[in-house]
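Hey team,

Filing this mostly as a record. A colleague (T.K.) asked me to run one chain through the structure pipeline before their review meeting, and I want the input and output archived in the tracker in case anyone asks later how it was produced. No errors, nothing strange. Just documentation.

Input sequence:
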Amino acid sequence: MDTLSYKTISANKATADKQWVLVDAEGQTLGRMASKVAKILRGKYKPSFTPHADCGDNVVIINAEKINLTGNKWTDKSYIRHTGYPGGQRSLTASELFEKDPAKLVEKSVKGMLPKNKLGSALFRNLKVYVGTEHGQEAQKPTTINLNDLM
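Output structure:
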C-alpha cells in the first residue's frame, strides 16, 4: 500500500493558491457580509486551509456605501477609541462613521472578525474596500462572487 497517500498536506506561503475576489456590498447586511469576507480572507472555504498560514484570497469590496444595518444599529452601535491621554475616550455612532467614510465601517467590521495576532494583521492587508464601483485592482482580474451562495 502506498503510504504517501496518507500524508497530510499543509499549505504555506509558497504553496498557497491565492486568488483575487470581487465582492459587491450593495444590499448586503454588514455583519453577515463581514463574516463571510473574513472566512474568504482566512482561506476557510478552501480544502487546503491551514490555520497558521496566510492561504486565503485577496478580497476587493465595492459599493461600500450601499450596505445595510438591521434594527437600530445606525444609532445604537458605537465605535469607541482612546487617544491615549487622560479623558481621551472618543466614540462615534455607526451613522457618524458612515458619513465620514463608509469604507472604514466595512473595514472595522471585517478586521474585528480576523485573528488578533500577526497573522490577522497580514490577512487584513489582503482586503481592499472602495466606495462606488471603481476599484484599483483591474489588473489583477478579480473574479466576482456572490456571498449569498456561500455558507
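Quick notes for T.K.: The radius of gyration is 18 Å. Strands lie at 20-24, 58-62, 78-82, 89-93, 127-129, 143-145.
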